[in-house]
Design a protein that fits this description.
This is Hymenoptaecin. The chain is mostly helical and 64 residues long. It has one domain. The protein has 4 helices and no strands. The chain is globular, with a radius of gyration of 10 Å.
Amino acid sequence: GSPRFRRHADPQGSLVIQGQKPLSGPDRRPSLDVDYHQRVYDRNGVNADAYGGLNVRPGQPAQP
């Protein structure tokens, strides 16, 4: 899911957390996580924090 995944990462990392819920899978999750970190880090280093928080706190979105 590169096209739809990119769409969520475009606006903000917070939205990605929700989009990953339905896509959460044992086969796609690891792949998406890596891509998510790279995309977010490239746009905003601060948002990169969401990458780790996503796994630790999926209910709490990253703060801008």
